[in-house]
Amino acid sequence: MSTVPARSPATHPPTSAARRARALLGRAAVPLLFLLLCVSGALVAHIGPEFLLREMLSRFARNAVLVVSLLIPVLAGLGLNFGIVVGAMAGQIGAILVTYWRIGGIAGFALACAIAAPLAVVFGIGTGWLFNRSKSREMVTGLVAGFFANGLYQLLFLFAVGSLIPWHDPSMLLPQGFGLRNTVDLWRIQYALDDLIKVHVVLEGSPVRVPLVTFLFIGLVCAFNLFFQRTRLGQQLRAMGQDPHVAATAGIDVDRNRVIATVLSTLFAAWGQLFFLQNLGTLNTYSSHDQTGMFSVAALLVSGATVSRATVWQALLGTLLFHTLFVVSPLAGKALLGDAQIGEYFRVFVAYAVITVALVLHAWQGRRR
């Protein structure tokens, strides 16, 4: 008597809802991990919500525009623009000049933005030209361009100012009579934007500044990005990001548009650095711009953004999560190990680790395609 082998249970392919749920969970894994780290660190260090809110009001206002400046190059398929360091230098040049001319308040801040704008456009055109000659290697090119520009920046302010370029303010120069001091006090434009409309809230028994106008400008920059994506140029950049060869076949001037995307990113980075400096009130002449690109890229990536896809909401979420970790990690390191420096090492490690993982995943996905 023959026996019929039992059939194994039928395996059904996952439904579209299940696939969407897995994809959503995959995109949310990194921000959820960072949220867990922030909450755990706050609990370990016994950080109260009022202290955290006090710190994040200023940190978010300082850094949001710098992170948002990365979005347009991602849309255009240029990847993560480490070259925003060049834009940060343009902003710092504007801040140095208005300090030298002793122009303070909102007029000084506005003049610094006006000086930085044409410099950022020129720097952006140069960086975009480099990107067009190093296609598919834009991120490395932006990093190297930042190092090269930093050399020229230091040559200008460490040697030329006071020797080749007349400088009639000895208090800003090094003792030998040329070269700017390592620190420039920006007290004339400190809080120029933050305090344009003075709003304070009481936290832990003391008043805390709420940079209302700065948040308004951050909102305008975000609104511009959302509007820009719906314009004809924005749609062209999106098509380039999806497939530059098809875009070129469709008659889109890819090289020109890549330069425009780089110029816009560099311009926003210059203004973003000025937002940062007017809130901080101090310019470290030779190092304030050093980590601008690295930390802004890391902040964008911790939100779940990738090298090829990033949104305004991810930029804002990433800024919030990354800089919350900046506040929490030193205090958690001190509570756990008695040394706040451990927390400093941890957050720098996290910044570089996030960037490394994102680039590795980008290369792996590129090979799969």
Quick description:
With 369 residues, the protein is mainly α.
Q: If you had to describe this structure to a student in words, what would you say it looks like?
A:
With 369 residues, this protein is mainly alpha-helical. It has a domain at 45-285. 67% of the residues lie in helices and 4% in strands. The chain has helices at residues 16-45, 49-68, 71-75, 84-100, 105-132, 138-160, 212-228, 232-242, 244-249, 254-280, 292-301, 312-337, 340-368, and strands at residues 183-185, 200-203, 206-209, 282-284. The strands form two sheets. A two-stranded antiparallel ribbon has the order 1-4. It has a two-stranded antiparallel sheet with strand order 2-3. β2 and β3 (206-209) form a beta hairpin. The protein starts with 15 loop residues before the first helix and ends with a helix.
